[in-house]
């Protein structure tokens, strides 16, 4: 499908165009797109086995899609093209070692945002394969951008915000985790960030792009309740150990620091609560 973003033509590529588990199909599809125009391509790879539990159950497919295909895409681009690859806060493990300032609480949990250059310690197949994708992209095309983001939400596609919103609007109660903390990020803010990045073209490499602040899922659910004007007591905080067990481990703390982003002169995304407010209004 061809659409327009910021006045530029955008061609979306889905599984129907080429399954990312097959290198030859990926390269052939890219070559066909390349042949259509001599204009440089900006290839934004948002495809992934992004369900953390699905990745845990099917590491083979997760490895192909998350770790290998990004490298094939980067490899198939021409000299003048640009690769922008989306990655995740789940490359971090939530422990104190490796965080921006190295600080942690008494239990070894990180308490300060992760720097772009902090060592990655993924806890899950998803995190490991996404880290593999980062390396594959930068090995194939060192002039690429790897953009890590976190806890993405918007008004349309089902996500944790729409689930909390719909339950609360229906008068139901919500149980939300208090002991996993990250940076909720609105899709429109992420898209603005990506546009700013490709417009400005700072030094290549890894960047973090996420709305400002930090929150647990409980904080997000409470903020939604407050915004919708429903009883905040409908939101109950629970710990991961009290929730049904899931195949993949999640980091307790995966807040992304924006040092490189800001040093590059890119606009710092607004606080997550403001973005949440707009997304809830858009859906009303
Ligand atoms: N959501 C978050 O909170 C979050 C946080 C940090 C980073 N990210 C990153 O942001 C990106 C987008 O995530 P998302 O949450 O929007 O994921 P999503 O909704 O699951 O979208 C992933 C897309 O990848 C496609 N895909 C999966 N396997 C494929 C294959 N074998 N061949 C071709 N396409 C394939 C899916 O196609 P189908 O619909 O056909 O399956 C889907 O369109 C990912 O790189 C993810 O790692 C997301």
Feature tags:
284 residues, alpha/beta, Rossmann fold, four-stranded parallel sheet, two-stranded antiparallel sheet, 9 helices, 12 strands, binds NADP nicotinamide-adenine-dinucleotide phosphate
Topology:
Elements: E1 2-5, E2 8-11, H1 23-36, E3 42-45, H2 52-57, H3 59-76, E4 82-88, H4 125-140, E5 145-149, E6 152-153, H5 160-169, E7 174-177, E8 181-182, E9 185-186, H6 187-200, E10 205-208, E11 215-216, H7 217-228, E12 235-238, H8 259-263, H9 272-283
Parallel strand pairs: 3-4, 4-5, 5-10, 6-9, 7-12
Antiparallel strand pairs: 1-2, 8-11
Helix pairs in contact: 1-3, 3-4, 5-7, 7-9
Bound molecules: NADP nicotinamide-adenine-dinucleotide phosphate.
Order of helices and strands: EEHEHHEHEEHEEEHEEHEHH
Side-by-side strand order of the widest sheet: 3-4-5-10
CATH topology (level 3) name: Rossmann fold
Major sheet summary line: 4 strands, parallel
Low-confidence stretches are none
Instruction: Please indicate the percent range of residues in DSSP E strands (runs of 2 or more).
Output: 15-25%
The whole-number mean of residue pLDDT values reads 92
First CA to last CA: what distance? 28 Å
CATH class: Alpha Beta
Overall number of domains: 1
Report the total helices: 9
Secondary structure tally: strands? 12
> Which shape, going by the Cα principal axes?
globular
- CATH homologous superfamily title: NAD(P)-binding Rossmann-like Domain
Structural class: alpha/beta
Bound molecules: NADP nicotinamide-adenine-dinucleotide phosphate
| CATH 2nd-level architecture | 3-Layer(aba) Sandwich
């Amino acid at each position: 499908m061809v659409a327009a973003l910021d006045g530029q033509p955008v061609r979306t590529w889905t599984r129907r165009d080429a399954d990312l588990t097959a290198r030859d199909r990926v390269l052939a599809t890219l070559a066909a797109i390349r042949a259509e125009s001599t204009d440089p391509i900006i290839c934004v790879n948002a495809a992934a086995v992004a369900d953390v539990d699905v990745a845990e159950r099917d590491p083979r497919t997760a490895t192909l899609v998350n770790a290998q295909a990004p490298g094939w895409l980067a490899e198939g681009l021409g000299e003048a093209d640009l690769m922008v690859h989306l990655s995740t806060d789940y490359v971090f493990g939530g422990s104190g070692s490796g965080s921006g300032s190295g600080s942690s609480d008494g239990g070894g949990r990180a308490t300060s945002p992760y720097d772009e250059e902090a060592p990655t310690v993924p806890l899950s197949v998803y995190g490991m394969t996404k880290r593999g994708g980062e390396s594959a992209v930068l090995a194939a095309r060192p002039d690429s951008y790897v953009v890590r983001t976190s806890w993405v939400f918007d008004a349309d596609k089902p996500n944790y915000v729409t689930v909390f919103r719909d339950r609360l609007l229906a008068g139901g109660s919500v149980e939300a985790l208090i002991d996993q903390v990250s940076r909720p990020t609105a899709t429109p803010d992420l898209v603005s960030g990506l546009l700013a990045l490709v417009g400005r073209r700072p030094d290549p490499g890894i960047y973090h792009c996420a709305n400002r602040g930090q929150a647990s899922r409980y904080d997000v659910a409470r903020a939604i309740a407050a915004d919708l004007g429903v009883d905040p007591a409908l939101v109950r905080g629970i710990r991961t150990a009290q929730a049904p067990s899931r195949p993949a481990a999640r980091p307790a703390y995966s807040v992304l620091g924006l040092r490189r982003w800001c040093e590059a002169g890119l606009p710092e995304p607004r606080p997550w609560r403001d973005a949440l407010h707009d997304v809830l209004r858009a859906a009303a």
